[in-house]
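Exercise (ungraded).
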Amino acid sequence: AQSVTQPDIHITVSEGASLELRCNYSYGATPYLFWYVQSPGQGLQLLLKYFSGDTLVQGIKGFEAEFKRSQSSFNLRKPSVHWSDAAEYFCAVGASLTGGGNKLTFGTGTQLKVEL
Amino acid sequence: DGGITQSPKYLFRKEGQNVTLSCEQNLNHDAMYWYRQDPGQGLRLIYYSQIVNDFQKGDIAEGYSVSREKKESFPLTVTSAQKNPTAFYLCASSQVPNYGYTFGSGTRLTVV
């Protein structure tokens, strides 16, 4: 069965500093990988996704992620963090369901705090 | 604008009561999902539906029930059999086989 590990529960960075959030996945086939962001009390918003092709994917809000098959990783990066980036970030892996369709399995999330 | 609407935003349930959470989408998506979110546990799949009048159990379906009578609607009932229902519930939809999910803004259920 597929699984996702986000090893960092909390991360604190200064505004303007670079950011990297770690994600490791386990899946037997070619993975479909996602990063979502969640503000307190809200739903999840898709930041970016990887299906195939170029291993460096660009997303919204200046985020990017790099798929590394050899390391089973899909780390999220941003060159310069803004105070509004403070939120919880979830990595997810997609898998096919019996009978068709798909299911996302989520990591436990990383809470990002931005110091001004 | 298209999207997913969940209601109510906050819901309080007494012990032994059934409650129903609403989820409506106007994205014309075929598939809909219910996830439960608890602090430190990520999101766990409760039920999903890929077409009208059909739905499947997810990883934690015990104590929950759903229906899919219309493409736009996928209500979730939290029954009295669910021993620990206090959580944040998220509804999502996707256009099969597209993997992109659109999420609603969630319902926070509290047992009082």
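Further reading is listed at the end of the chapter. For now, observe: The interface with chain A takes residues 4, 6, 31, 33, 35, 40-45, 48, 50, 56, 58, 90, 92, 94, 96-97, 99-106, 108 of chain B (CB under 8 Å). The mean pLDDT of chain B is 92.
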